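Predict the 3D structure for this chain.
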Amino acid sequence: MTAARVGTVVVDGEVVPHNLELQQPDLRAAAGAPAAREVFVRKACPAGRPAAAITCSFGIVAAALAYTLFYLIAAPPPLPVAAPLPSADRVLTRVVHGSCSKQTLPQPFWRTVGSLAPDLFVYNGDIVYGDCADVARPHEAWSEPACEELRTAWADLFAHEEITSARAVTPVIGMPDDHDYGLNDCGASNPYKQTAKDLFLERFGAAEDDPRRSRGGLYTSHAFGAAPNRTQVILLDTRWFRSELKRDSGAAHGRYAPYTEAEAEAGRLTMLGEEQWAW
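Done. Predicted structure below.
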């Protein structure tokens, strides 16, 4: 809890000391109901000095209003209302999936998704395009690991009325891909992956005790209904643990070349990582 120390009040040209510490909850109370404000001013302002009390109370209320305005502006916007996942015993009859919803483009397809009334929508990756760095630029030109580009990309996506309306009635789950992780074609060495993971969990309203918060990656699974009508959705994270790709500027079909068997054995190459495989 931060505190603001007020040392003096000027009354009719005279400096009046009163050694006051204002705590943030008191500032909010001072800007609230008259009764709360009266108690606050009585405690805060010099006793026995009516003019001083009036001057002091106006100063305190002004400071409280300024703080409240700052708090409202600086606070992150509330997350859009999201439909809860189906219950564990719910039999799913329609699952829709998709990917590559670039946040800077219109999102009319969400109206189509809504018209299908699916039991579940699964994002297959590249939910946003928020690359924190351009591999064509030198490393020193890249963004800091905080990656404001990725934070902005998520905010831009959820600013679309179409997706917020669809999410309000359609349960949505998903798994990030490289552009959600902040770096094209990224793997285990991606410096932005923890920031990206935190943003993903925040945007999808993950609980504080969600197991993904205490382990590497974002792999998870969901099961709905009972046999013989059971649906299990297994979402694997193919970015967090993945070994680096072998670059080859002379490769005929892209920027990468296959590893030889010997290279793969020597490098203990992996796509999912041991932890995810064990899971």
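Strands lie at 3-11, 14-23, 95-98, 120-123, 172-174, 220-224, 231-235.
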